[in-house]
Amino acid sequence: MKLYTYFRSSAAYRVRIALNLKGVAYDAVPINLLKGEQREESYGSVNPQKRVPSLDTGSATLIQSPAILEYIDEVYPEPPLLPVGAINRAKVRAIASLIACDIHPLNNSGTLAYLKNQLGQDQQAADEWYAHWVRQGFDAIEALLGPGPYAFGSRITLADIYLVPQVFNARRFKVSLDDYPKIAAVDAACAAHQAFQDAAPDRQPDAV
């Protein structure tokens, strides 16, 4: 199994966490987004969207982290990434969707580059844009999180897998977590788990 990844990509980070939690071995294939390697023809044949992650399972190449995470959970069911019960599953999926659909698309590298290069915004404006959408999302997540230590209790779920990379990005862009003690506590609990440690950006072979 090969994972096309970039060390600071939050979408690829999610997949690394899930593979580690499931104990699934994979080879990392770094794609340097800053150098534009995702736009090269050779990678376009792997992923027509020219983004990371992509997961080559040996029989197919999958794209889009939500689809890849569902695949991983279906093929490697232990430990499960969703809790028991339809209501509980919906709560976990809501956190994941809030990050994947609302926060991340507005703040990914392509969006920020368009703000600066095509719309002429300076770095300060881009940073303010980033912080605005993170805070708006985190306000909701802070209110939605269940009892700890993880996002919804004593077992790691998709909510944690989505939240930890978003917290990493928030810190990287200097968005304070002072107003989000529950989010910070979940992140700290996950940071003690080996699967999250091994998935962290600074542990990746392409980390710079």
Describe this structure in words.
This protein has 208 residues and is an alpha+beta fold. 54% of the residues lie in helices and 7% in strands. The protein has a four-stranded mixed beta sheet with strand order 2-1-3-4, covered by helices on one side. Strand 3 (54-56) and strand 4 (61-63) form a beta hairpin. Helix 1 (10-22) packs parallel to helix 3, helix 1 (10-22) crosses helix 7 (158-172) and helix 7 packs across helix 8 (181-191). The longest helix is centred in the middle third of the chain and has 22 residues, at 86-107. The model has no long low-confidence stretch (mean pLDDT 96).
Tell me the layout of helices and strands.
Blueprint: E1 2-5, H1 10-22, E2 27-30, H2 41-44, E3 54-56, E4 61-63, H3 65-75, H4 86-107, H5 109-117, H6 123-144, H7 158-172, H8 181-191, H9 194-199
Parallel strand pairs: 1-2
Antiparallel strand pairs: 1-3, 3-4
Helix pairs in contact: 1-3, 1-7, 4-6, 4-7, 7-8
Could you provide a short overview of the structure?
The chain has 208 residues and is an alpha+beta fold. It has 9 helices and 4 strands, in the order βαβαββααααααα.
Radius of gyration, Cα only, in angstroms?
17 Å
N-to-C series of helices and strands: EHEHEEHHHHHHH
How large is the count of helical segments?
9
> What strand order characterises the main sheet?
2-1-3-4
Terminal residue distance: 24 Å
For the largest beta-sheet, the strand count, sense and barrel status come to:
4 strands, mixed
- The shape is globular
Range of helix content: 40-55%
Percent range for β-strand residues: 5-15%
The overall average pLDDT, rounded, is: 96
